[in-house]
Amino acid sequence: MMAEAMTTAGLQIDRRHPLGVEPLGEARNIHREGGRFISIIGKNDLFHSPDDHGPDVADLSVIEKFATAFAAVAAALSQ
Q1: Mapping DSSP to helix (H, G, I), strand (E, B) and coil, where does residue 64 land?
Q2: How far apart are the C-alpha atoms of 42 and 25, rounded to whole Å?
Q3: Which end of the chain has the lower number of beta carbons within 10 A, N or C?
Q4: Is residue 38, in this structure, part of any structural domain at all?
Q5: Distance of alpha carbon 61 from its chain centroid, rounded?
Q6: For the whole prediction, is pTM greater than 0.90?
Q7: Per residue in 29-69, pLDDT tens?
Q8: Domain that holds residue 36
Q9: CA dist 26 to 38, 41, 69, 72, Å?
Q10: How far is CA 4 from each of CA 7, 9, 11, 30, rounded to the nearest angstrom?
Q11: What angle do CA 19, 22, 25 make, to 5 degrees?
Q12: Residue 17 to residue 25: CA distance in whole angstroms
């Protein structure tokens, strides 16, 4: 569902983590407890860096596309 919403919003999916394989980061805890989640990982050389903030490191048109995709999924799941 998320992949379709992302594609419809004009986002490209570069890779997918296979279902059932333990993810990295905070999503690992949700996975271990059997929870359902969507984890979106981006590419940014400044990620987790003190310089990872402000208008120069965020592309608002891309953020808008992600917001559109997440809103579409949330609306579908609420039905």
Answers
A1: helix
A2: 13
A3: C
A4: yes
A5: 15
A6: no
A7: 999 999 988 888 777 777 778 887 777 778 889 999 999 99
A8: 2-44+55-78
A9: 12, 12, 22, 24
A10: 5, 9, 10, 23
A11: 120
A12: 13
